[in-house]
Amino acid sequence: MKSVNFLLAFALLALVSSFASAYDPSPLQDICVAIKNITDGVFVNGKFCRDPKIAKPEDFFFPGLDKPGNTANRLGFNVTPVTVEQIPGLNTLGISAARIDFAPYGQNPPHTHPRATEILIVLEGTLYVGFVTSNQLNNTLIAKVLNKGDVFVFPIGLIHFQFNIGKTNAVAISGLNSQNPGVITIANSIFGAKPPINPDFLAKAFQLDPNVVKSLQGKFWMS
Fold first, then answer.
1. Sheet containing strand 141-146, strands side by side
2. Checking CA distances to 109, which of 14, 73, 81, 191 falls within 20 to 30 Å?
3. Strands 118-124 and 107-112
4. Residue 92, C-beta contacts closer than 8 angstroms, at least 6 positions apart
5. Residue 213, burial from CB neighbour count under 10 angstroms (0-12, 13-18, 19+)
6. pLDDT band at 48; cut points 50, 70, 90
7. Does pLDDT of 77 surpass 90?
8. Rounded to whole angstroms, how far apart are CA atoms 144 and 162?
9. What is the mean pLDDT of residues 6-35?
């Protein structure tokens, strides 16, 4: 039965993606520094393309998304991405997906996808999910408890999260309208930056004691 539910969810995901207007081909990477001499170029916005005449089935295939991810970490979650890095055939198509596994009370901490809107389908368990609107809309929290079969959308660029509030494992599938949606985990970016951001600056920005900031900067931040 679980395999049937998984296939139904993935079929729904594919259907939604087929009607979505892809965000690409806008920026597909964090930075792309302009150069005057094209012979000095080493990277493009996206991927170089193989001759389509020699494409093979493996270029459009990724196995094993039915297998649970390892949630034995501090946050109790695991993301199995299916982007252009895993399926080369996604290049230029503007879609990707991911499986997210949660241990009991595990969480996918506050983060953003700078290049994609995300649609989430709960396959198993109960998740508390939400996003925060921009300053323009007074940083309003839009959140809801989701159960098996429920769907929720996280708008592009907004900080969002998922938290397993149940005593059992939870699983979700997400679809994103970019072949390379990117991810910025808020705590990692602020307190785990290399080299570190000046702690006095962060202390004032977050209204914290500088020693608290230094303590946060000294922690190991999970990627």
1. 141-146, 127-132, 160-164, 107-112, 184-185
2. 14
3. unpaired
4. 24, 25, 46, 49, 179
5. buried
6. confident
7. yes
8. 10
9. 60
